């Protein structure tokens, strides 16, 4: 992994565009939400109740609930990139929805694999319907993700581009699985290097953001070089995004993240601050860390000590610095893509939105 | 569900073609096996060891084993149909492989959902690697199934046909999930009608055979009516095939089926003989059946009594009669499709192979 040197982007010039960005964001969210509801539909089979529940539209009893729709980061990113290469947003909405469905398939299965009881402050699908049905609900979400892509057919997208979209989607699926495999294998490994970790998040998180940007671009332009530039931009953004998530998983505030503070410590996840601390520590600290990450049970007092060590190692500063490098690398890639300045400004705002999470 | 009246097919005329059929079968199996090995590849990541293990190519330690490749029913059926509409077999091999991968994805997840320890006399993937990794291995198999379809691109298949193939594959995925949902939901339901049951197997089993025949056909012809005829032929064949499986699940011989006799009774599956018996029984018999299928634990002596009741209700004869009806319906559909007699004969042999399981 090489981290390139970075030019600082001038943030002051962006403040005026924030409103335009917000307006675009809301518009895109609404389009995608509406598309998602059309795809999932009102099928009365109980299987679809699980999907609608997971997407926040129903409660566990099947009653509609007023949902503030999710952030829909991947679809919005896809549509912004599509628009910036001159594509008509309406044409790419099915692909944007497809990305959200794929992301949600992985979340349903993740929750089973991590034995997580709650997500977004609600019980997880498996917690309500049991693991066998939840595995199947995830599979169904996976299938709808592909069916969503076929709705491109109703627009004016060529078969060639649809096949290209299927390729991007299928490749990222396999990347997600490879990343997930590595993430789970790391739990039982005592020697995860930072390189291993970066490779894992590249597949598990960054690949889907890279696919979101590339998919949006490839539906709007035939220029493969531009599509690749968008792919790389999305990948760096995804790396930064995951590292930021790792930092929040230890030091985040519950009200903002929806996850309890220290949740990643409780779950013994080998996130960047932990991998770094394991690598950088020596003597008793290292022994304590290794012991904690190899034992089954967790005592409250153990956790406090672990966080103390992680803090002492400077893991937070290290992680945030790496996050910042990827973030700036994403921005500098964006500067090299030949698009209109108004579109670039929207994308820069999107990057800032993702990194600050303060909008 | 209507079962049409059936003309008997003259079996005597087929004996001479049996050899040709066997030769074709072996040829197709070899092509598909080779394609599958190319798709899965030699990736050293442990994830792929799970896939190679499941497909019978490796042992749990990752050592290659001499495998007699599976029956590859769905791919062979696909290639036979493709050939019969005038397609060149080599062109459809990636699609045939894709069907096998999709089938195997569903098996990996099925085994977790059913809590099955063994398949084809080997430990199941989850039994060796645990449920979280096995869920992910199933997902990866799912993704490779789509990637396999993209290999049609390397042949001379048009983008239009590839998009059509993706549609067929994605639709059958969702059908599989719907069928699986129903199957699991039936376990907790005391009132499964024969209609419910038939609808469930239509989605869970018959849809994939219908897709196999239709996919083979649609890659070889533009004639949608012919594709539909193949779809319906495959669907009826799939219905017969599943009912036959249900009969074997109670009365089958372990050496032939690879599953212990009575295995479906032990697992309390609501298969056709059971659904029929529950519907047809009265008084004490019904009470005993209902009690057995609602209780958690199973005593050896309970099982004997349950089989006694199922036998007494004539459930075997009922099931075999329905199986026969679907089987003959499939054959009579085959008679109406406009294909060469030599191709028809191969397909009739395939139907007989599937139904007799005595080759």
Describe this structure in words.
- The structure is a homodimer of 359-residue chains.
- Chain A has 359 residues and is an all-alpha fold.
- Chain A has a single domain, classed as Farnesyl Diphosphate Synthase (Orthogonal Bundle), CATH 1.10.600.10.
- Helix content of chain A is 71%, strand content 1%.
- Chain A is built from 16 helices and two strands.
- In chain A, strands 1-2 form a two-stranded antiparallel sheet.
- In chain A, a hairpin with a 2-residue loop joins strand 1 (118-119) and strand 2.
- In chain A, helix 4 (89-113) packs antiparallel against helix 6.
- At the A-B interface, helix 4, helix 6 and helix 7 of A face helix 4, helix 6 and helix 7 of B.
Task: Looking at this protein, list some descriptive labels.
globular; 71% helix; mainly alpha; homodimer; Farnesyl Diphosphate Synthase; 359 residues
The structural domain count of chain A equals 1
CATH class of chain A: Mainly Alpha
CATH architecture verdict of chain A: Orthogonal Bundle
Q: Give the helix proportion of chain A (percent range).
A: over 70%
Shape of chain A: globular
Order of helices and strands of chain A: HHHHEEHHHHHHHHHHHH
CATH topology of chain A: Farnesyl Diphosphate Synthase
Count of DSSP helices of chain A?
A: 16
Count of DSSP strands of chain A:
2
Residue-averaged pLDDT of chain A: 91
**Classification by helices and strands of chain A:** mainly alpha
- How would you write the strand order of the largest sheet of chain A? 1-2
Beta-strand level of the residues of chain A, as a percent range?
A: under 5%
Q: Uncertain regions of chain A: pLDDT < 50 for 5+ in a row? A: 1-12
* Rounded radius of gyration of chain A (Å): 21 Å
């Amino acid at each position: 992994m090489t981290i390139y040197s970075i030019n600082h982007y001038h943030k002051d010039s962006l403040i005026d565009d924030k409103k335009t960005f917000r307006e675009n964001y809301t518009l895109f969210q609404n389009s995608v939400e509406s598309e998602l509801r059309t795809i999932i539909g009102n099928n009365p089979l109980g299987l679809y109740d699980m999907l609608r529940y997971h997407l926040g539209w129903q409660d566990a009893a099947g009653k509609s609930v007023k949902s503030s729709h999710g952030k829909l980061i991947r679809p919005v990113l896809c549509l912004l990139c599509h628009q910036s290469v001159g594509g008509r947003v309406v044409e790419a909405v099915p692909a944007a929805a497809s990305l959200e469905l794929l992301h949600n398939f992985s979340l349903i299965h993740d929750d089973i694999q991590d034995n997580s009881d709650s997500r977004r402050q609600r019980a997880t699908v498996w917690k309500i319907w049991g693991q066998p049905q939840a595995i199947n609900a995830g599979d169904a979400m996976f299938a709808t993700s592909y069916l969503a892509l076929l709705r491109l057919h109703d627009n004016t997208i060529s078969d060639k581009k649809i096949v290209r979209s299927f390729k991007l989607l299928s490749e990222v699926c396999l990347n997600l699985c490879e990343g997930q495999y590595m993430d789970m294998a790391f739990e039982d490994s005592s020697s995860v290097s930072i390189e291993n970790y970066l490779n894992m998040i590249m597949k598990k998180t960054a690949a889907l953001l890279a696919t979101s940007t590339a998919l949006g671009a490839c539906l709007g332009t035939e220029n493969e070089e531009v599509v690749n530039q968008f792919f790389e931009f999305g990948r760096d953004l995804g790396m930064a995004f995951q590292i930021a998530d790792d930092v929040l998983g230890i030091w985040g505030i519950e009200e903002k993240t929806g996850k309890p503070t220290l949740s990643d410590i409780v779950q013994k996840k080998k996130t960047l601050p932990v991998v770094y601390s394991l690598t950088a520590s020596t003597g008793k600290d290292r022994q304590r860390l290794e012991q904690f990450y190899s034992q089954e049970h967790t005592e409250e007092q153990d956790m406090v000590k672990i966080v103390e060590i992680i803090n002492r190692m400077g893991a937070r500063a290290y992680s945030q610095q790496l996050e910042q490098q990827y973030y700036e690398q994403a921005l500098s890639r964006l500067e090299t893509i030949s698009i209109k300045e108004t579109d670039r400004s929207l994308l820069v705002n999107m990057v800032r939105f993702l990194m600050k999470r303060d909008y």
